[in-house]
Design goal:
Elements lengths: L17 E4 L2 E4 L2 E2 H7 L2 H10 L5 H14 L4 H9 L6 H12 L11 H25 L14 H10 L5 H14 L6 H10 L5 H12 L7 H12 L5 H10 L19 H15 L3 H17 L5 H11 L7 H22 L25
Antiparallel strand pairs: 1-2, 2-3
Helix pairs in contact: 1-8, 2-16, 3-6, 4-6, 5-6, 5-10, 6-7, 6-16, 7-8, 8-15, 8-16, 9-10, 9-16, 10-16, 11-15, 12-14, 13-14, 13-15
The structure holds acetyl coenzyme *A.
């Protein structure tokens, strides 16, 4: 038995949800470029869950269900008030989602219908939790979800308590489309491993949130912004990046296990970063990002991934840095739950082997003789 570090190149399951073939990403066979330019996040969530684009009435029903389910139990809000104000927002989300199961009468109902309802409920409630915690830690009251608006609109509304402008809603909606699913990424794999034991959907999503939090995965978008802030201005980019590369340190937001010629999602976020920078009159983050890309691609041949330009996009939308990864979670929840439903449909316990590298034939020595 020989291990492959990081399971690189290992095909661990079949899936009909999303594909990465020859550098092209599709959701249910539809190219991500088409979806980013034309679809809404709710259409994409429907596509991931049900395997086809919704008709207008199916979409209306989903929007109504998301609105109906968006409020979280009062106990959840009370619990969020007890979290330390400086808690990591992904840690808070991980705890909150785990607790949410305690208040869902259907939590342990493993029927397909109940699991679909829970996927929609989680999709509706995640933005409410993220926004509520973001306000509570600032000493503000949570804002109740608004009925009849999109996930992107509702999130920005609940975060600020004000009606978001159309450009911001559109930008966030596109970012949600771009992050919704990505084949067998680490957090989706974590979710599938968890539910393959026939554990419940909340356990799967809690595992996934834990995996997404790390800076080698979803946490990279926050790390990118921390880097941009640390660099400070475009004229400092060159010395900072050269220093990092000379020290063999990683530049966050670059590289990918699967894409070697660039992440197809990055160009959309780059365009949004420029447009939002022009609109807000602050192109500093975009200009710095472009210069970083030139240097990292030029010197290392590495291309930006989905996290790189999303940092400047979210900053232009005035979203606090530590909500970037929770926003990723809000979007990827659609993909996680689609994969969980697919896993249940054709389940087998996921239990690989390890190549043993420890001592052989060691003997037990009683504690008195050690
Ligand atoms: N900056 C500098 N060098 C890098 C980077 C980077 N961002 N990424 C990879 N490399 C180098 C490695 O140092 C290594 O060099 P070496 O062979 O000389 O040791 C080589 O490229 C291969 O890198 P690995 O880390 O082995 O590649 P792996 O496939 O395991 O990792 C990963 C992929 C985790 C994305 C990696 O590129 C990375 O750490 N990037 C930065 C973090 C990041 O942006 N994560 C988000 C990924 S997208 C997502 O999850 C949403």
């Amino acid at each position: 038995m020989t291990a492959t570090k990081g399971l690189e190149g290992i095909v661990a399951t079949t899936s009909s949800i999303s594909s990465i073939i020859d550098g092209y990403l599709t959701y249910r066979g539809i190219n991500i470029d088409e979806l980013a330019e034309q679809a809404t996040f709710e259409e994409v969530a429907y596509l991931l869950w049900f395997g086809k684009l919704p008709t207008q009435s199916e979409l209306d029903q989903l929007l109504a269900d998301l609105s109906k389910e968006a409020a979280v139990p009062a106990e959840m809000i009370s619990q969020l008030r007890t979290y330390p104000k400086d808690a990591n927002s992904m840690a808070a989300l991980r705890s909150a989602v785990s607790s949410l199961a305690l208040y869902d009468a259907e939590a342990n109902d493993m029927s397909k219908e109940a699991n679909i309802r829970k996927a929609i409920r989680l999709q509706a409630q995640l933005p409410t939790i993220v926004a509520a915690f973001a306000r509570i830690r600032q000493g503000l009251e949570p804002v109740a979800p608004k009925q009849g608006v999109s996930v992107a609109h509702n999130f920005l509304y609940m975060l600020t308590g004000q009606e978001p402008d159309e450009v911001a809603v559109k930008a966030l909606d596109t970012a949600l489309v771009l992050h919704a699913d990505h084949e067998l990424n680490a957090s989706t794999f974590a979710a599938r491993v968890t539910v393959a034991t026939l554990s419940d959907i909340y356990s799967g999503v809690t595992s996934a949130i834990g995996a997404l939090k790390g800076p080698l995965h979803g946490g990279a978008n926050e790390a990118v912004m921390a880097m941009l802030e640390e660099i400070g201005s475009p004229d400092q980019v060159e010395s900072y990046i050269s220093g990092k590369l000379e020290n063999k340190e990683k530049i966050m937001g670059f590289g990918h296990r699967v894409y070697k010629n660039g992440d197809p999602r990055a160009k959309h976020l780059m365009k949004m970063s420029r447009e939002l920078g022009e609109l807000t009159g602050n192109l500093r983050w975009y200009d710095m990002s472009i210069r970083i890309e030139e240097l990292v691609t030029g010197q290392k041949g590495l291309k930006p991934n989905v996290d790189f330009y999303s940092a400047s996009v979210y900053t232009s939308l005035e979203i606090p840095r530590d909500l970037f990864t929770p926003i990723f979670a809000i979007s990827r929840l659609s993909g996680w739950t689609a994969h969980i439903l697919e896993q249940y449909d054709n389940n087998r316990l996921i239990r690989p082997r390890a190549e043993y590298t420890g001592p052989e034939k060691a003997q037990y020595i009683p504690v008195s003789k050690r």
